[in-house]
Amino acid sequence: MKKLSLVLIFAASCAHSYAQGSTDYGSGMKFNINPEGTKYVRLITWSQIWARSVQNNPGTLVNGTPQNKTFDVGGRRLRMLAMAQVSARFMVLAHFGINNQSFLNGGAAGTSGTGGYGAGKKPGLFFHDFWSEYTIIPTINAETKKPNKFTMNIGAGLHYVMGVSRMTMSSTLNYLAVDAPVFNWALIENSDQFARQYGIFAKGKAGKFEYRLALNKPFATNGAATEGVAVDNNGQSKAALAGYLEYEFLDREPNTLPYKVGTYVGTKKVFNVGAGFYSQKEGTQSLKNGIVQKHSINLFALDAFLDMPIGRKEKNAAITMYSGYFNYNFGPNYLRNLGIMNIGTIDPKFTDKKALAGAGNARPMIGTGSIFYTQAGILLPKTSDKPKIRVQPFAAYTSKKFEALSKTGSYFDLGSNFFIDGHHAKITLQYSTRPIYTAKDVIDGNKGEFIVQFQTYL
Fold first, then answer.
1. The overall pTM is greater than 0.90
2. Structural domains of the chain, count
3. Residue 6 scores a pLDDT above 60
4. What single DSSP character describes residue 236?
5. Contact present, 191 and 221 (Cβ < 8 Å)
6. For residue 278, what are the CA distances in angstroms to 218, 235, 262, 308, 336?
7. Given pLDDT bands bounded at 50, 70 and 90, which one contains residue 128?
8. What are the angstrom distances between the C-alpha of 110 and each of 25, 61, 107, 116, 222?
9. Which residues pair with 438 in a beta bridge?
């Protein structure tokens, strides 16, 4: 009975973590291994399909053709997650899939041209997470049957306990906006594997505090050192330390899995403030008068998250807000230009002013400097007892002040979620703008991007 109670608490917290806004989902696809249901495997699968109209940066080619604007449909995320609880004391989790497959890129290594292995086709399936986790101090005391004020779980593997901010460890299933702002994953696909690293982590609760701490081994990077500009080159890759501490003023959030919820769609009252960090010695290199200089990577953030119902209970209206201040130091003038599902390449024949960020929808994404990000949304009241669709308009703003650029960049997002069954079936519309830098001290207007996302997960 002691084991059964612990497993049921685990299952309930998992179901709550994933079922924001849906009354029908329950524990999802759960397969019992024994008749009592104390041993089981849980499966989650989801797809996020994007239809986009993108105003390309000046000087963009798409498949060899100059393009000012491009329409496409592609797979932002196509994934599956499986976790097995075979004991109240330990679990194992595997999360795998593909990302960012367009009609032109995102395919397997070496695919190009046309035919069976043409450009963008047959992307490689890979693991996002794969870790084992052990309960040291459980949520419920096995002897007294009362909650423990202090809990602890430790784990090891390819994991998502990366510190820095709530958004750094966000769930991709329940965003308020169409997606994360991406700079929240400051190491993305350099010294991490799609925002994950191999390491050892500890997490748990201490009263109203939630803590996460990890010792990781970053993936190797080998960028060529540049005069006065830091690049990713960590040599033998020294260990990295990451952590996040959060104080929960209202409802306590589940901590079974590391994925932080973006919006609870009126099902929970949450107000949290947090602070986090990531630090690795000698993570980047630059040249100074031709001599190699090594620099530490030090990332820090403060953030706050509010999500709660408002108005009459039966109307189920709610507000969601998140704000964060991010201070990143990768070394002198470090800057990464990225575009999500970017299908553009530079046109060598273009003679007008080109964007410093490159082609397509690329923009200054991550760099040494500071970033302020805020988003807010409101779940509109129910119009009937059983509405077919719930509507949640939202807006977001980002301000980036990077050492490598003299002018601060402002980024805007405006859109709405249309919930058919909570986050399990929803359609999101979003229009975003980005500044176009043609020189480090020149912003030559803005370009826009309209996205329609179709999301389903079970």
1. yes
2. 1
3. no
4. T
5. yes
6. 11, 18, 22, 30, 18
7. very high
8. 41, 20, 8, 12, 21
9. none
Give the tens place of pLDDT for each residue, 265-313: 999 999 999 999 999 999 999 999 999 999 999 999 999 999 999 999 9
Q: What percent of the chain has pLDDT over 70?
A: 95
User: Residue 380 burial by CB count (10 A; 0-12/13-18/19+): exposed, middle or buried?
Assistant: middle
Q: What is the pLDDT of residues 76-106, one digit of tens each?
A: 999 999 999 888 789 999 999 999 999 999 9
Is the sign of the CA dihedral 65, 69, 73, 77 positive or negative? positive
Q: Where are the beta strands (DSSP E) in 138-221?
A: 152-159, 197-206, 209-217
**Exposure on the CB side of residue 283, measured as CA atoms within 13 A:** 26
pLDDT over threshold 90, residue 328: yes
Q: What is the pLDDT of residue 67?
A: 96
Distance CA 105, CA 112 (A): 9
Burial zone of 174 (CB within 10 Å; 0-12 exposed, 13-18 middle, 19+ buried): buried
Distance CA 26, CA 5 (A): 18
Distances (CA, A) of 39 to 84, 90, 93: 8, 11, 14
Give the whole-angstrom CA distance, residue 128 versus residue 103.
23
The CATH number of the domain where 160 resides is what? 2.40.160.10
> How far does the chain reach from its first CA to its final CA, in angstroms?
29
Pairing assessment for the beta strands 240-248 and 209-217 based on DSSP bridges: antiparallel
Question: What is the Cα–Cα distance from 302 to 166, expressed in whole angstroms?
Answer: 9
3-class secondary-structure state, position 2: helix
Rounded alpha-carbon distances, angstroms, from residue 96 to 44, 175, 382, 403: 11, 19, 36, 36
437 lies in which domain range?
Answer: 2-457
pLDDT tens digits along 366-414: 999 999 999 999 999 998 888 889 999 999 999 999 999 999 999 999 9
Which DSSP letter does residue 68 get? S
Indicate the helix (H) or strand (E) that contains 10: helix 2-18
Q: Are 421 and 386 in contact (CB under 8 A)?
A: no
Identify whether the C-beta of residue 137 lies closer than 8 Å to the C-beta of residue 151.
Answer: yes
Residue 18's pLDDT is what? 53
- Token digits of residue 448: 């826009």
- DSSP state for residue 180 in the 8-state scheme: -
Whether the predicted pLDDT of 162 surpasses 90? yes
Amino acid symbol at 397: Y
Host H or E run for residue 9 = helix 2-18
